[in-house]
Amino acid sequence: MEIKKLSLTHGAELAEGATVIIDVFRAFSCEPLMFHLGVKQIVLESDVDRCKALSSSIGGILVGEVNELPIPGFDLPNSPYLIMKNGRKYFGGQTVIHRTTSGVRGALTALKRTSEVLLGSFMTAKAIADYMRRSRPQVVSLVAMGIRSLVKAPEDEACSDYIESLLTGEVFDWVDRVAKIVENETAQKFLRGDKAYLPREDVTLCLQRDLFDFVLRASYREALVIVEKVSPES
Would you list the domain boundaries of the chain? Predict the structure, then answer.
């Protein structure tokens, strides 16, 4: 198994083989939680107006952000904590239409050229590694999407390294890496607590490792990109 380590929009454009698009803060930490809370399906869409049109035509909850800012007309921002606060009664059986600047756009970019796209965060890292060991792709691309897909982010790069360590057996120093993550501005902007759409609690939730025993796989279904929950044994 050849492992390619890539980053940002350019990395998503170069991805090949089985691809993991990584967005720890916060897109692909939100999605496992939404499935845990009982959503039926998640639709990935990067265009805000199309998200709203889809919500009108197929129904569903609008979750997302543009450059971290809440989107007028959307139901929720891209926040794991706010998702958890709404709970199962809100999400159970629902379709979610999800728009984010880094993770969602990266997944849509990679889907244009790769054989398989999984959505990665610390929450599902071990399940992703188990899935890859079972499916045995010749090439795995790990793409850390970073800040607005333009600048590398320590949490995404660390998650990429963690998944690689699970696949190769290399040592991964979690204590050192989490310290570097929380001291960086990508975490500090949450921890300052001065913006309601960037809750402090998001950092704690996003840095939970291996919470779930499923992977999230994105694929085309007619004209939509649908995320499904898949067992590593599949």
Answer: 2-224
Structure tokens at 52: 């709203």
Token pair of 79 as six digits: 């926040």
Span 11-58, pLDDT tens digits: 999 999 999 999 999 999 999 999 999 999 999 999 999 999 999 999
Q: Is the peptide bond prior to 148 cis by the omega test (within 30 degrees of 0)?
A: no
Q: Mention the CATH class of domain 2-224.
A: alpha beta
When computed from its CA atoms, the radius of gyration of the chain, rounded to whole angstroms, is 16
Q: Is 0.85 surpassed by the pTM of this model?
A: yes
Q: State pLDDT tens for residues 51-110.
A: 999 999 999 999 999 999 999 999 999 999 999 999 999 999 999 999 999 999 999 999
Please report, for residues 22, 23, 41, the alpha-carbon distance to residue 143 in angstroms, rounded to integers and kept in the order given. Answer: 6, 9, 23
CA end-to-end distance (rounded Å), the chain: 19
Are the CB atoms for 39 and 222 separated by under 8 Å?
no
